[in-house]
Each structure stands twice: as structure tokens, then as C-alpha cells.
Amino acid sequence: MKLAQLRALVAVANHGNFSEAALHLNLSQSAISHSIASLEEELGIPLLIRGRNGALPTPTGERVLDHARQILKLLEAIEQEALRERGLQGGKLRIGSFRSAATHLLPPILSRFRNRFPNIEITILEHDEYAGVEEDLREGRVDLGFTHLPCGTEFETFEILRDEYVALLPPHHTLADGPLTWDQLAQLPLILSADNSGCCGLALENHLRRAGQSFRYAYEVREDSTVVSMVAQGLGAAILPRLAAEPVPVGVQIRSLPDPLERVIGVALRANGLHTPAVYAFLDAIRGTGLFATASVA
């Protein structure tokens, strides 16, 4: 029995078919099929039910999968211990992040970290939303992740900063003196970012509901940068977290919301995980940039 066979079996069970499992493991579909077929032949039992809609574990296959997953977790623990012993002279660090944090927060941290530990290989997995980062943490695909706080109780979390939601107004739009009002904002066509369809959007929607506001959006686009560019061209106004709006083009007006709203950005890692020295060194690099606001355990 080989570890490659167990990895193939777990991947097919997780993804439900051979093709996606092959993509996940960066192998050919035939290699995945051969690994599982040889494992079934070696054990003398079928492990998967193959069909037009994919592959499902047999009842015995489910029990074998439980053991296979435990073996792979133990293997990961052995690898983590080896990395710990090797210290910071090599190894890998895997970071998950949502888009605006990867763009604006990560570069200065990475620069500081790389200057001190040039031999550590760094992989960054980016997501449009926080949920993808947290899923990567749960599945062990990343060692730490930039996410929205609060998050799951299985994570140890550290607050980095609080990011204010702001209204972006077209360059030539004139407003009366004084703070922005909801009525003034409602007079403009509003541009919705796809980011606002996820966690940020839910927070904003709930905030507007509490303020007794309901807006109709004239445009919906995927990228925050496109939203900002459309505002700069005078096509409408938008509400975004300040970090997501950067860099703000010259002329675009930035105004605080009539009722303030902010999102809390932090870094998370598995509370009971075996973390390498590189993880703690990276947290030190964040502290060194002055980003850490407070630290807490979720």
C-alpha cells in the first residue's frame, strides 16, 4: 500500500470525481484511476462506486477513507515536526488571503519577512471572499490566513486593523456643506461590487437595514477596481471598504457614511495546529510593520 494511493482515494472522495481529483493532485486522470484500481486489487475489495455522475465510496470504502485520512494527517504532523526541527533555514509558508488584503497589506509584510528569511518558500492563495480563506485553513491548505473577524472558534485570531466603509462620489458631483446624508447618496446611481455579494455585502446590507435605508443598484460588476474606475468616470457612486477602494483616482470624492461602518481584518491560524517557526516569524513580521492593533483568541 502506497501513500500515493491513499492520497488519490481521499481526493476522489473529497471531489466526487476523478477529473477534479486529478487537477487537485496535479496528476493525470489515468494516474488517479490506476492508483485506486491497484489499491482495490491489493485489498481485494471495491472502494468506490463509479457512475456517470462521478464516484462515491462504498460502505467499506467509507471506513477505509477514515483510516486513510488519519494516516495522511499523521504524515502531515511528521512533516511539520521535521520543519520545526529544521528551523527557519528552509521549508515552506502557505498564506491565504482575500483580494484587497493581498494587494495592500501583504507586500510590506512579505518584504520584511523575505529580508530576514530568504530561504523560506512562500505560497499565496488568493480568494475573492473570506469564506475561501477559512476553508483553506480548515482543510490544511494554508498555514495562516488574512480574514474577517470574528471567525470560527477553531481559529486563533489576531486583529490587524479596522477598515472603514466609505462612499465614493464622482469627481464633479457637488454636495451641500456638511456630512453626507443617505438622501444625497440615494440621488446617485449606485454601483455594486461583486465583493458586496459576500460577507462584506451582508454586513453592509444589515447596516443599511438598521439605518432604515434601501438602495437600488444601477450596475453590478465583479472587480472593486472596476467599480472605482466607473465612479471616476462619473457613472455613479459606490460604497466600499476603504482598503478595497485603493488606489483612489484623483478627483474621486471620499466621504464617510452617515452612520459609520467598519470591517475588522485579522490573521487566523488553526488553534490546535502544529505550526512551524516560519508561521510565528511571519506573525512577528506583521508586528514589525506596525499593523497589529490588538491580539485575541476567538
From TrEMBL:
Gene3D superfamilies: 3.40.190.290, Winged helix-like DNA-binding domain superfamily/Winged helix DNA-binding domain (1.10.10.10). It comes from the Bacteria. Keywords: DNA-binding, Transcription, Transcription regulation. Pfam families: HTH_1 (PF00126), LysR_substrate (PF03466). InterPro entries: LysR_HTH_N, LysR_subst-bd, WH-like_DNA-bd_sf, WH_DNA-bd_sf. Residues 1-58 form the HTH lysR-type domain. Belongs to the LysR transcriptional regulatory family. PANTHER family: HTH-TYPE TRANSCRIPTIONAL REGULATOR CYNR, TRANSCRIPTIONAL DUAL REGULATOR HCAR-RELATED. This is LysR family transcriptional regulator. It comes from Thermostichus vulcanus str. 'Rupite'.
